[in-house]
Design a protein that fits this description.
By secondary structure, this protein is an alpha+beta fold. The protein has a single domain, classed as hpI Integrase, Chain A, CATH 1.10.443. The chain contains four helices and five strands, in the order H-H-H-E-E-E-E-E-H. The strands form two sheets. Strands 1-2-5 form a three-stranded antiparallel beta sheet, with no helix packed on it. A two-stranded antiparallel sheet has the order 3-4. Helix 2 packs antiparallel against helix 4.
Length: about 130
């Protein structure tokens, strides 16, 4: 219209269908088996198991620090969330809601994976 190629906007009468979110579901036993028995790096397997067995959201799992994992008491403390702001990952010192602050018991399958993975971590000094 601006360049006089068309005389009216033909999209004015178009209505978009409503956006519907897909249903969330748990993994099937077969899918869980494939996750646990796939040929992936230990780091990735532990991350997937953290999502699967601790019920964390992706941002909560990515924000976990070594101090949030208590192997002795077999629990995990959720107290922060990783979010993307303008495509820049940032740690928010609080989860989305107050219910997001929680302590989660670690099932043996996740506990064993963490015990195997944590000693392999290399701690980098803080960067200025």
């Amino acid at each position: 219209m601006k360049n006089d190629f068309i005389y009216k906007n033909v999209a004015n009468d178009v209505t978009l269908p409503p956006i519907t979110k897909g249903k969330k579901r748990s993994l099937t036993d077969t899918e869980k088996w494939y996750v646990l028995n796939s040929n992936i790096k230990l780091k990735n397997r532990v991350f997937l198991c953290t999502l699967l067995y601790a019920g964390l959201q992706r941002g909560e799992a990515l924000a976990l620090e070594r101090g949030d994992i208590d192997l002795e008491n077999k629990c995990l403390n959720v107290n922060k969330n990783l979010v993307l702001i303008d495509n820049d990952p940032q740690i928010k010192e609080c989860p989305k809601t107050s219910a997001g602050f929680r302590t989660i018991p670690l099932p043996d399958i996740l506990l064993n994976g963490l015990k195997e993975y944590l000693p392999t971590l290399v701690i980098h000094p803080a960067r200025n």
